[in-house]
Amino acid sequence: MTDALATLFEGKEIRALERAGEPWFPIVDLAAAWGIDRTTPHNILIRNGEAFRGFVCGVSMCDKMSPSETGFCVNERGLYLLIGKITTGKLKNKEAAANILRFQRWVPELIQKYRKHEIMQVPAAPDIRAELEEARELAMICGKSPESFQAVILRKHGKPELAAELKASGEIVRGETGWYTVTGLVELCNDPTLTAERLNTYLANCRENGEWKPFQYKEGKIWRLAPRGLPHGKEYPFNLGNGHSEPRISWRESILVAAGLKRPVSEDQMALPARAV
């Protein structure tokens, strides 16, 4: 059985795969929550196989995970051992080091609450990103507003409140011309103080009413789409030129409106002026 913990680590979901009453944690979730490359904990487990014996299981045992999520899961003792094997002082990414230190203080209490069933366990939600992407592409082919098509998908999966918010927000600006890199978005903002690096950081640290609600997050050195960014961006494979590729994000101009960096065009502004008699 796979459950998503109702309490998240600073907005990042860390799944618990319960077996014989014991929670197991996918290292892909841990790496994403900490802000480090997923290969780092993977390599630690490989190099210290004997130390982790009995505390780690292969993805074949985690039958509720996606086939694309390769790697391992660790139990509670394996999690503490894994944290101890990461030398935060040697991490080049100081933000990731700080994340891990905060996680060390946070996780013991959470696991105890989980064991006492004080934390509600909810079934892992289906991944609807592919359906949202398909709805957006279909809307573009039909010349319709993407949010109206995506609202249908959200209602289908029992999320009417999100569908209503998407439709009411007017985040998709009429007359968009296409997709943009972060550099292209900076040019659209026409702000001399804004850089691509600052915009990336802003999109990853957006908050509403004090709650962290990012449009993207960093997986190692790679920016990935967060659920909130799905209506405005898409990931595509970028050819590195060495036979390998990595995901990159293309954005619609609507992301600037959603992030509060650009105001939407009102209906009266889009209307043609009356012809003089």
Walk me through the structure:
- The chain is an alpha+beta fold.
- The protein folds into two domains: 2-123, no CATH class; 170-268, no CATH class.
- It is 40% helix and 19% strand.
- It is built from eleven helices and 13 strands.
- The strands form four sheets. The chain has a six-stranded antiparallel beta sheet.
- A hairpin with a 5-residue loop joins β12 and β13.
Any idea how many domains? 2
Largest sheet: 6 strands, antiparallel
| Tally of strands | 13
Count, helices? 11
Low-confidence stretches: 1-7, 60-64, 120-125, 168-176
Describe this protein with a few key phrases.
277 residues, alpha+beta, six-stranded antiparallel beta sheet, three-stranded antiparallel beta sheet
List the helices and strands and how they pair.
Blueprint: E1 2-5, E2 15-19, E3 22-26, H1 27-34, H2 39-47, E4 56-58, E5 72-74, H3 76-85, H4 94-115, E6 121-123, H5 129-142, H6 146-156, H7 160-169, E7 179-180, H8 182-189, H9 196-204, E8 207-208, E9 211-212, E10 216-219, E11 222-225, E12 233-239, E13 245-252, H10 254-258, H11 267-270
Antiparallel strand pairs: 1-2, 1-6, 2-3, 3-5, 4-5, 7-13, 8-9, 10-11, 12-13
